[in-house]
Amino acid sequence: MINTNIKITIDSIAEVEKQIKENSIPYDYDTKEYPIEVLLYKFKTGAIKDGASIYIPNYQRNFVWNEYERSRFVESLFLGVPIQPIFAAIDDKTGYIEIIDGSQRIRTIDAFVNHGLVLQDLKKLTTLNGFTYPNLDPSRQNKFQTISLRFQIITDKATEEIKQDIFYRLNTSGRKASPAEVRKGSFGGNFYDFITDCSKIELFRKLTPLSKDKIARGDEQELVLRFFTYSEIGEDSKLKGQKALDKYVQEKNVYGFDKDSLQNNFLTMLKFVEKYLPNGFSKTLNSDSTPRVRFEAISVGVFLALQYDSTLKPTYMDWLTSNEFESEVASDGSNNSGRLTKRVNFVRDCLLNRIKKDQLTYGKS
Question: What is the DSSP secondary structure assignment for residue 213, as one 8-state letter?
């Protein structure tokens, strides 16, 4: 919380200057560029004991990028996408180069060239899907080896504490973009504009309370997109999570969409929720949040029930407070297609009275 009672004086300004000077370190940077061929020769297996002059220290993360993330990075290299510099430091005792930030990138290149990484799920260079490095034409291998990565290398003045502090700041400064923010920047177009317009509908906002922070980070658009995606692709188990959402947006941007039909489905669902669910999509009347899994279950479940019976009048709504419904929406699993299908179908079947009121349990057992 910001302390607004601090009095700024000449002395306090002087103290600020003194503290900055005492704690500032004159980092000396040397910028170098290493072609991949040279980088891998110096890196080898990444440990000093194996003769590597570029190595990854113990405080670094393990190799945590998944196959998709590794493939995307390799694709970026092929495409010539600008790659942010790798931060490193000169080890005072050995003169070797210690990686401060960039180990995932170096390990990925090593995995591709030397350890059989299979490229997958590429969206631009789709013909590379299923390829390993040895599958490439020799001329393309040579061209890949000449791609250069830029290094910002701190001189040997940096202590171990300073190196770790730099690593911490590089990996904690700022906030990682949310999926909605990434999608807006990557797949913006007519359909995403439509999603944004739907997220501004007054009834949607009334039924779907969200914090200012979540609204600022695109949660409204994320929920609307999830409704349209899952109400259309249904139980397609081949599509999961963010990949399903990204693919859906891309296809609508490319192939077009029936704006009136989609908007009508959305509004019809919202009006049903307004009429029969006193708390809207949130759990309590005065809540300031809407859990994603709860929104998915109710919105898509209502849509499916109305597809079956457009004049539906529910026999009972007690399922909203049942132990079974609470169990369905208690854990996230929003990217798990099996759990999604199960909770959506639960809402649909309760609304259509396929699941009877006396088949459910209420209250804590």
Answer: H
**Mean pLDDT value of segment 351-361:** 95
Indicate if 92 and 183 belong to the same structural domain: no
Same domain for 59 and 112, yes or no, is yes
pTM comes to 0.64
The C-alpha atoms of residue 270 and residue 257 are separated, in whole angstroms, by 20
End-to-end alpha-carbon separation of the chain, Å?
Answer: 41
What would the DSSP string read from start to end of 89-128?
EE-TTT-PEEEEE-HHHHHHHHHHHHS-PPP-S-SSSGGG
What are 159-175's pLDDT values in tens digits? 666 666 776 676 666 66
Does a structural domain hold residue 364? Answer: no
CA dist., res. 292 & res. 295, Å (int): 5
Write down the residue that tokens 């970026």 correspond to: 76
Has residue 18 been placed in a domain?
Answer: no
Q: Is residue 350 part of a domain?
A: yes
The boundaries of the domain holding residue 122 are: 25-172
- Specify the amino acid at residue 106: I
Averaged confidence pLDDT in the chain: 85
Q: Are strands 86-90 and 148-154 parallel, antiparallel or unpaired?
A: parallel
**What is the per-residue pLDDT across 103-127, written as a single tens digit (0 to 9) for each?**
889 999 999 999 999 999 998 899 9
The answer to whether residues 201 and 132 belong to one domain is: no
Q: Cα–Cα distance between 40 and 77 in angstroms, integer?
A: 15
Do 224 and 292 share a domain, yes or no? yes
- Among residues 155, 172, 189, which one ends one of the domains? 172
Helix (H, G, I), strand (E, B) or coil at 311: coil
